[in-house]
Write a structure and sequence with these properties.
113 residues, four-stranded antiparallel β-sheet, 10 strands
């Protein structure tokens, strides 16, 4: 069974940076699209960013994070990263990693003003 495990969340001040990591296990191929979503308290889950499996230079971002967040993955394809810069209080949420079939347990990011 595939498992996705996120790490790297925390509490920071506005303007700071954080890097989230998602590590996949339970399969041998890193050819799947990996994506980050987030869900703030009382709101629906929101798409943040995605990176393709075979074409790892192909990325997509949600409008609210364009220009501030960068998604990438390592050479094995099994680990994805979300570099988050210029964080805002509105970025406060639980961040989830997904390959659009499986989901991680989430990691909390809290940004204070």
């Amino acid at each position: 069974q595939v498992q996705l495990v996120e790490s790297g969340g925390g509490s920071v001040q506005a303007g700071s940076s954080l890097t989230l990591t998602c590590t996949a296990s339970g399969r041998t191929a890193g050819s799947y699209t990996m994506a980050w979503y987030r869900q703030a308290s009382g709101k629906e889950r929101e798409f943040v960013a995605a990176v393709q499996g075979r074409r790892r230079n192909v990325t997509e971002y949600g409008d609210s994070v364009k220009g501030r967040f960068t998604i990438s993955r390592d050479n094995t394809g099994m680990t994805a990263y979300l570099q988050m810069n210029s964080l805002k209080p509105d970025d406060t949420a639980i961040y989830y990693c997904s390959d659009n079939t499986y989901w991680g347990q989430g990691t909390q990011v809290t940004v204070s003003s």
